[in-house]
Amino acid sequence: MSKAYDPAATEPAMWSKWMDSGAFHADPSRVLDGDARPYCILIPPPNVTAALHLGHALNNSIQDILIRAHRMKGYETLWMPGTDHAGIATQTMVDKKLKGEGKAGIAEYKKKELEGGNGRDEFIGLVQEFKDEFEGRITHQLQTMGCSCDWERQRFTMDDICARAVREAFFRLFKDGLIYRGKRLVNWDPVTQTALADDEVEMNDVDGFFWYLRYPVVDDAGNETGEHVTVATTRPETYLGDTGVAVNPKDPNHAKFIGKHVKLPFVGRIIPIIGDDYVVMADPESSDSKAKFASGFLKVTPAHDPNDYMIGQRHDLEMINIMAPDASISDQHGWERAENKEGGEQFVGLSREDARVAIEQAFRDANLLEAKKPHNHAVGHSYRSHVPVEPYLSDQWYCKVTDDKLRGNAQRALNPEQRTEQSIKDWVESRPKMMTDGSNDGTMSFYPSRYAKTYETWHDNLRDWCISRQLWWGHRIPVWSIPNKELVQSGLLDTLESKFTGQFAYKTSDSDWDEEVAFICTLPNDDLEQLLTNSGAQQDPDVLDTWCSSALWPLSTRGGPDAS
Fold this sequence. Notes:
- This protein is an alpha+beta fold.
- Helix content is 35%, strand content 21%.
- Strands 7, 8, 9, 10, 11, 12 and 13 form a seven-stranded mixed sheet that branches. The protein has a four-stranded antiparallel sheet with strand order 6-5-14-15.
- Strand 7 (201-218) and strand 8 form a beta hairpin.
- Helix 5 packs antiparallel against helix 6 (119-144).
- The longest helix is centred in the N-terminal third of the chain and has 26 residues, at 119-144.
- The chain is globular.
- The model has no long low-confidence stretch (mean pLDDT 91).
């Protein structure tokens, strides 16, 4: 016997025996006949962006130990293998690979698509090749480790069965009013040029500044009065989109300005001074950094700051987006300078970084920069491109996770003994019972129990989920849009209702009849989709957030929603 173990001489033969015997294949009939108890692990699908690393080796070794132990105890075991398409990560990797080969990356294919070509399909083909390469490598690594997965059931988050589950889930949520389209602030990545979920934003401390900008006060005729207010900001470049200045009504020094107006330097827009309790009153001696750096006046830019957005909603302020998708200053995405005869043209076309420098210099030259103070603060960065995210006003698709049918049911599923917050207990108990047939209220427990509080708190602080991504790699949103007037008057709606009952659902945007848009969501049906296309309806170009499919993994891998 050799003194050293030679895996190459032993493991391939052993692996072949395991495969030939079907040792890892699960037989559900043994469970249904009562001959064995089930034990199942659905492998957390690794991204098809790279080969597995040591962390994957440890994770999968633990799963393998659990599966093999239960298999030897007589359980009918299923360890389901598979991979995740990882939308933004994989598309970014392919774009980077193309640029490394001296090509223009995805920009080349987007240009071709705009010119009427099939750039989207060509690029997706390249991503598919990339996915196939790394999926094969990942599978080989797991098998070389000896992972006793049911390899006959291997799955991928964009295969036909998973895609069917995604379409069904989207359709049901859309039909029930739990998916809607809305214009609001999103976390925008200016490099990958897509919206991000809150969980995809990393907070990093950066060394920055507070800039103190003077805005001249004007009278009712728009003439400067000789007074000015000083706003404090860490992002002077966004002042181009200011539509208000806020003051705390309790501020003894500054509340007198409420009701007056100021004129934005170099832009000329006249905006109101409003009162809002959110504004921090200035206190240079305070230990609170917000009060210490505050000026008492807050510039309000509803289209580029989440807190300003809320203030804007409360006071019905205009929302002006002053940036292009790449975060450069633009007058083509909401800031209509030509129509409003506003200035600021010297900043158009600059990157947000260069605009910050140019705006500081312009204020300094005009004696309107009161001060500039160093300040270390947390800034959200994209988990993928690692650049600061831009709060960005845009139209996106949302899942209404705050609805009681979703968040409420999730909270009520928790074991009452593990509910740690009395307020949450009261809230849960005051709501109706679960609305899902066959559900089990209060039967879910956490081990260790301390994680129940994390679960509660996370759900209690949820915001509606932005599920659309401005990518090409992923599950394309199954919604077609067409003017509602055309949908009705052309007879298309009558045709849909007569031929495809139960296969589609539609909702209209909130606008007048001549501008109203109908959004038509469909189940998979080639004839239905062809009818919509031939009628002039346009399919939404965005794809769904990766988690719209990954979250369904425990269901879709077992054939859901069709499986019983």
